[in-house]
Amino acid sequence: MGELFKLRGSLSTSQRSLLAIIGFAMVLLLWYLLTLGENPAFPAGILPSPSAVFGRLPDILTLQDFGAFSDLYKDNELIRNTTKSISINLAGYLEAILIAIPIGFLIGLLPIFRGLFQRQVDAIRYIPLTAVTGLFIAWFGLNTDMKVHYLAFGILVYLLPVVVQRIDEVRDVYLKTVYTLGATDWQTIRTVYLPSVISRLSDDIRVLTAISWTYIIIAESLYSGGGIGGLIWRAGVRQGRIDKVFALLVIIIVVGILQDKIFTYLDRTFFPFKFQNKDKYKKEKKGNSSWSAIWNYALQTLTWLGLGIYAFLFLNEFFAFMGVLKPLTYFFGEAAYAMHFLFLAILFYKGKKLYETMLKKPQTPKTA
Q1: What is the pTM of this model?
Q2: How far apart are CA 104 and CA 116, in angstroms?
């Protein structure tokens, strides 16, 4: 019990789960009390009741009505607009990363580029993104490309200086070691700078996920071409449905949490050395669990099943054997190429790991 009030004290898994449930219940209770009665503290036009957003409990349990979520699904193509925003988010991220990493390495590693552009890189962080919205409309119009480039620029202004900073943080002991072994400049970049910088950069990219949704909402609010931002403006603000606005905010939070979990999983997959001490401690404390083996098997099965379904839909985009119906284009819109890139990258990685596993020969016991 004393750990609960100890400075920087640690919590067990059960304590964290229980406290998270209690905290969520407290927020809902406060929300309910503030909107309770005929004359609530906050009228429905400012703060809708939980039942208006999520639906009444009896209707939720019988799957009859989910409040504003049901209205969004029936009247505003909720799933399609959500997937469009996700694809734009991913496309903007890919563009920003593909630009930031090579430029950041040039500035961080070569003194001539650092001298030429370091000041400019530091200065662009102070550009307010809302002030350049008109420029992006003038340059790219009001289509999906504008939203992707606008989002990429919003991520880039924060990501590019971070790449340079992460390069400066590479420990000298690693550099001296490879120099002692006679490594060339390219070998030093490949074996020291790239693993060190990219592994640290993954945490920065994960943090920027929350910021990226801010720019998506701004870009999509400018033009009714679909997406959650467009829904917030049309269904929420213009129609006065504040309950729909709150429902859409809940969806953004849920998508953001899922994205964060996916980034954490990818971080553990590609950079396991960052979690060696923590994982070793957990294994020593809990021991080998059959449930973890079952979970890993189920996760692998679901991953391959998902890749198979996406492969079927991906081929349909080019050969149209399902007729005029193209689900990926319908749900992800013009930014579907980002989802295709992600699918091909995952397929290549999984195929490579499977090929390496098949190449491994079973070790035969040595005979005396």
Answers
A1: 0.83
A2: 13
